[in-house]
Amino acid sequence: MPEPFTSSRLTVAELSESDLLARIFPRLHGGDSSSLLLGPGDDAAIVAAPDGRTVVSIDTQVVDQDFRLEWNNGYRTSGYDVGWKAAAQNLSDINAMGARATSLVVSLTMPPETLVSWVEDFADGLSAGIRELGASDCAVAGGDLGRGRELAVSVAILGTLDGHAPVLRSGARPGDTLALAGTVGRAAAGLALLESAVPVHDLTQEQRALLDTQCRPWPPLEAGPLARDSGATALMDISDGLVRDGARLAAASNVVLNLDPAALKELAAPLQPAATLLGGDPMPWVLGGGEDHGLLAAFPSDVQLPHGFTAIGSVEAPAATASAGVTIAGRPADTVGWDHFAD
User: What is the rounded CA–CA span in Å between residue 77 and residue 81?
Assistant: First the structure.
């Protein structure tokens, strides 16, 4: 994955807001949304809602909480990385409703010493993430720039259901097949590599690919609407870990998600290059690692799983003396995933 070229030492404190916006606006080429009636340049954007409903989500990244500018292994997070990830994690939330993203607005808070080139890289990464992840109908409608003590990025995203019913967390039923689109554990393995003492330049191609998943995830955006059209009873973005997010879906549906050990073993296999290097076990990354933004789904057992989905377990009714939750081959899964306030 190439690092964006940065040469200028100009900081945002040396430009006016208008000058900085003039550098950013030409770079914000996301999708071409017919829903965007008025884009950047006025006090607010105007977005059409022909479906009569709007799907809305928002996510924030804060330096030293959600990313580091320089990691222990020497990797430097570029503005491109942060922009791409901002697009990916918000697009994934819309995808998890079986919806299609139409527009987004972004707020960027920066210390005065932030390099202008970093901000330009951010705009490039945001636009590239939208395009390359396949959100061709999602346009950047506008945003806000502000000065603050720490670097923070917030994106609010809008989507449409195109006349369909949303697919919620609460619809899974006993007897359904539990399936996954995308990956789990790769971003967690990448995070472990970033936090390790192994220099980034010493990583193998397989190990570097895991690191790249943490910095620039690839949510399977085609999977949400495809799952909806194939009769999915429940959908959820896996951002905080398979077990933690699975428990949320299980609680919303009042069911037990029983994971298949053989399927988990297959998910762990691609993580072995990082586990071998760091002397660990890849399974905790599979169960507890977030930020791949894979899609967890439940389908009726008589439905053929749509392209891109793999069965990883089953949906069962809770036992009389047990509550909703996640099990592995019938045994409770107690792996803890990401918690924004505890971690």
Answer: 6
pLDDT for the residue numbered 41? 82
| Distance of alpha carbon 61 from alpha carbon 151, whole angstroms | 8
Mean pLDDT for the stretch of residues 282-289: 96
- Type of residue found at 229: D
- In angstroms, the CA 107 to CA 163 distance is 30
Q: Give the DSSP letter string of 146-169.
A: EE-SS-EEEEEEEEE-TTSPPPPG
Tokens 């580091």 -> residue: 68
- Whether 161 contacts 53, CB under 8 Å: yes
Q: What average pLDDT score do residues 248-272 get?
A: 97
Q: Is the pTM of this model over 0.70?
A: yes
On the 0-12 / 13-18 / 19+ scale of CB atoms within 10 A, 4 is middle
**pLDDT over 80 (residue 31):** no
What the block records as the tokens of 306 is: 């749509």
Q: Which residues contact 16 (CB under 8 A, 6 or more apart)?
A: none
Range of lowest pLDDT (9-23, 129-143, 215-229, 286-300): 9-23
